[in-house]
Amino acid sequence: MTLEQLCASALSRPHDQAAIEFNGAWRSWGDLRRIAQSCCDQLQNCHIPPHSDIALIASNQPAAIAAFLGLISRGYNIRMIYPFQSGQCIAADLAQAPPAAVLAIETDFCDSVLKTLATHDIAGIAFTDTGANIACASTGARNTNFSGTPSISILSSGTTGKPKPVALS
After folding, report:
1. Do 81 and 101 touch, CB atoms closer than 8 A?
2. Model confidence, pTM
């Protein structure tokens, strides 16, 4: 079974089955599925097909896990962006290698990030505990036409400086 299939299978677990405990409250697989579906629907609304490059600013919360599982289950290429840096540093990371879209919590879309998204025609999708919304629209011009194996670029531990991306297929 592929990682895409495993994530899709996890998201199809019974709606009311407990999935994640966070801050003393349980989130169900139905909650995660709704957020994952909403993120992918918003990418589709921005005309960004699977296999496109997506940057994920994954803060420590269930909605970020749901977005991550949704992206994997649909075959997107994921590049993790270090969430514990300034908005200016996040904007610089995005400008260095512009993705088709950025998924993050609403507060990560500060002025410098929004300016970078607009300058580079990058879609911004803000996810919450209940779904996702378009924070910055794009023309979809940055879409990739990729036919190989999707990849995930995770961040190293950063023990010798800023965390560096490590690509995994």
Report:
1. no
2. 0.88
Distances from the Cα of 78 to the Cα of 9, 93, 110, angstroms: 19, 14, 21
pLDDT, mean of residues 106-120:
95
Query: What does 50-98 look like in DSSP terms, one character per residue?
Result: TTSEEEEE--SSHHHHHHHHHHHHTT-EEEEE-SSS-HHHHHHHHHHS-
- Report the share of the chain in percent with pLDDT over 90: 72
Question: Which region, left, alpha or beta, applies to residue 141 given φ > 0 means left and ψ of -120 to 50 means alpha?
Answer: alpha
Report the C-alpha dihedral over residues 93, 98, 100, 106, rounded to 10 degrees: 30
14 pLDDT higher than 80: yes
